[in-house]
Amino acid sequence: MLGERVREIRKKNNIKLVEMAKQINLSPSYLSQIERDLISPSLSALRKIAKVLNVPIYEFLKEDEKKAIHIKKEKRIKLELPDTDIVYEFLTPTRLRNGTPNMEIIFMKLNPFSWSSEDFSYHAADECIFVIRGEVEIYLGETKYNLLNGDSLYIKENTRHRLYNPKNTVAEVISCISPPIY
Asked: Which SUPFAM superfamilies does this chain map to (predicted)?
């Protein structure tokens, strides 16, 4: 928020609120309200603040992208596709303020004797599939790969593929896709 950026820059420059208020002929309480995002400053006040802090006005309008995004298990975005009994849980954000993330990581559980889809799928993204628990067969056209706990398979973009759980226990898989497709 704008006020947080003003406060951050002011403190970085070691300027006290009262000191800044005197230099620009505004009350300390007015500046405090701006910094707490309780009020929006006028353009004139913003120009004065920028001059005292020796920064261009646009510096206050920049939104810093968070360096980390914490996604709690219960807050994951879930996707259920028709004609499957698999639920995809997104471990990475699907959107960021300035666009999309550079990768997508999805957790999925494959029920016993189930396929990931009715037919082969393919996408314009590379994918790495990692088996956390159970056993998974991955079909790339006619080629079959058997993956056990801890095994992974890297699949190049536009390669037709689908997964199958050949056992009577649930298989857990993580898929990393870059660039994102969902």
From this structure: lambda repressor-like DNA-binding domains, RmlC-like cupins
H/E stretch holding 58 reads helix 58-61
* pLDDT tens digit sequence for 48-93: 999 999 998 878 776 555 677 888 999 888 887 767 778 889 999 8
Higher pLDDT, 175 or 100: 175
- Report d(CA 102, CA 25) in Å as an integer: 46
| Residue 142 C-beta-side C-alpha neighbours within 13 Å | 0
Write down the CATH number for the domain with range 2-61: 1.10.260.40
CATH superfamily of 73-178: Jelly Rolls (2.60.120.10)
Which residue type occupies 134?
G
Of 113, 165, 157, the residue nearest 139 (C-alpha): 165
**Contact between 181 and 106 (Cβ < 8 Å):** no
Cα separation, 50 vs 63, in Å, equals 16
Q: Cα separation of 165 and 136, whole Å?
A: 5
- State the amino acid at position 122 in one-letter form: Y
* Lowest mean per-residue pLDDT among 36-45, 60-69, 96-105, 150-159: 60-69
Parse the chain into domains and list their residue ranges: 2-61, 73-178
Four-residue CA torsion sign, 87, 83, 95, 160: positive
